[in-house]
Amino acid sequence: xxxxxxxxxxxxxxxxxxxxxxxxxxxxxxxxxxxxxxxxxxxxxxxxxxxxxxxxxxxxxxxxxxxxxxxxxxxxxxxxxxxxxxxxxxxxxxxxxxxxxxxxxxxxxxxxxxxxxxxxxxxxxxxxxxxxxxxxxxxxxxxxxxxxxxxxxxxxxxxxxxxxxxxxxxxxxxxxxxxxxxxxxxxxxxxxxxxxxxxxxxxxxxxxxxxxxxxxxxxxxxxxxxxxxxxxxxxxxxxxxxxxxxxxxxxxxxxxxxxxxxxxxxxxxxxxxxxxxxxxxxxxxxxxxxxxxxxxxxxxxxxxxxxxxxxxxxxxxxxxxxxxxxxxxxxxxxxxxxxxxxxxxxxxxxxxxxxxxxxxxxxxxxxxxxxxxxxxxxxxxxxxxxxxxxxxxxxxxxxxxxxxxxxxxxxxxxxxxxxxxxxxxxxxxxxxxxxxxxxxxxxxxxxxxxxxxxxxxxxxxxxxxxxxxxxxxxxxxxxxxxxx
Length: 484
Hints:
Blueprint (H helix, E strand, L loop, with lengths): L6 H21 L13 E5 L9 E5 L34 E5 L2 E5 L5 E2 L1 E4 L8 H11 L2 H14 L4 E2 L5 H4 L8 E5 L1 H10 L24 H11 L11 E6 L9 H8 L5 H14 L10 H26 L4 E2 L14 H10 L3 E4 L8 H11 L3 E5 L2 E3 L12 E3 L2 H17 L3 E6 L32 H11 L2 H11 L1
Helix pairs in contact: 2-3, 5-6, 6-9, 7-8, 9-10, 10-11, 12-13
């Protein structure tokens, strides 16, 4: 199927948008949210497509860091780990805290940071499949060439929703992750009881924004879905597992269980029993305090987490459990109780980190303080207005150019690595959305998230900035550690 000639319209929109951005900058020079400096780049940006106001933000890059005289990182091995300061080799990836900083340790005992790209997979639309066949002939050729390309840019891994079994067929594959979705699978079955549509659903599609952790039927899905991971348990190139994605760990889960669920439902029964026991009486929603809400959220979350974590360790005791990919900054990401529970079961806490121009150190510090575990950023990105795409969907920031996306990449990770608890990041995603593919969900429909476009052309101004950073990550960590 041939691509429709929509790019000219999109590019015209970009021109209009950039003209507005330039006008804003000229008239609001003093309104940069950070102090301008010769040590920074100035980047025009919007928080998302709904934000009509362009503002100037500053972006740090390694070539402008004061006193950072970088040369080259230590030699890496087949995993992409640095061949220095080796510790105990266990044959699989693990975590270790050294001199106050968390590291992933590779199977040979070397320090490792997982620098990955999520959804490293051939596109599924007709346009993308046609482009792949034209450029690579086969998926096997694609995975070999693009794996080598990513390694040449300093990446050493892949994030969620990548084509894992194809990646594993390559020689010295990228260090990959696997995502399994027991709650997601159960939700699809549960929906059938309601004719395929809930009377009230949150943005993730869960009824009343509640994960159904108390349903006895869910346990069968835990076993069924997670048992599938057993085939990976001896693979040294596997980092670890995610279970589900962005589940709704809302702060008012106790109220929702009691006020919205039927009295014969397992969720209502569990919540009512918990509150009655806590209060020592026949309690109701009117008796709930803020402390009760936090404590119940921890109980509710732990009910899920213990089930899935136990199953992961049952079917694969060798690899890391990377958690369930937190997202909501006003719910789980600022809830100490959630992180305390996470620390009991997760080896690394996974977080999809959006809505911030750059990470905020007090927030990052809290994650490690509350959980006692390192974290990995499993989704984040910015969209370029020069891509020819509308960029109307998705949670990432909008910036004018691919070079600006590269500046965003470097600035964001510099702030991540100032925290001694960050052990990696996964850019979301490998390939742009195909705007003609209406089968995908709305949030993944028309935006420049990828490092390549739908025709498998690489965005080199972005990638050049990624490579410049990735190739000096080890040096940067030591530079940042000396600043404190």
